[in-house]
Design a protein that fits this description.
This protein is of the alpha+beta class. The chain is built from five helices and five strands; from the N terminus they run βαβαβαββαα.
């Protein structure tokens, strides 16, 4: 089982970030954090890195359900969605597979929530290709 799923999109990097954000919103997710990895690595280490953005996405309803089932599940929230540019200008949008990440948690009731989040994130990844 892979720990993520992804798609290559035929749009510029910033447009891909915007498209991912919009599709997440359509599926009930909010962007709680946005980390510009390229900028951080330049500022902190003085190194150049490819365009790479981490979107910390959260579906409040599903996060609330999970938090009621497992008080420390917040250590695994939010769900990260990554937009990165590869060589040749290819842009990839990827999302964590919450079912894979929940394998470490022994609370089996969380698996239903993880499957629902997975379904929504997969829909987001499918939609960004359109």
């Amino acid at each position: 089982m892979s720990y993520y799923f992804s798609a290559i999109v035929e749009v510029p990097f910033e447009e891909a970030v915007n498209r991912a954000s919009e599709e997440l919103k359509k599926e009930g997710f909010g962007i709680m954090t946005e980390i510009d990895v390229r900028k951080v690595l330049k500022e902190k280490l003085g190194v150049d890195f490819r365009p790479y953005r981490i979107l910390g996405a959260c579906n409040p309803r599903l996060a609330y359900e999970a938090l009621q089932m497992e008080e420390n599940i917040g250590t695994m929230l939010p769900c990260n969605v990554v937009v990165q540019e590869h060589s040749g200008g290819r842009v990839e949008i990827s999302a964590i597979d919450p079912v894979a990440s929940m394998q470490a948690v022994t609370n089996r009731r969380l698996l239903d929530v993880a499957h629902e989040v997975r379904k929504l994130l997969m829909k987001v990844i499918d939609s960004v290709q359109s």
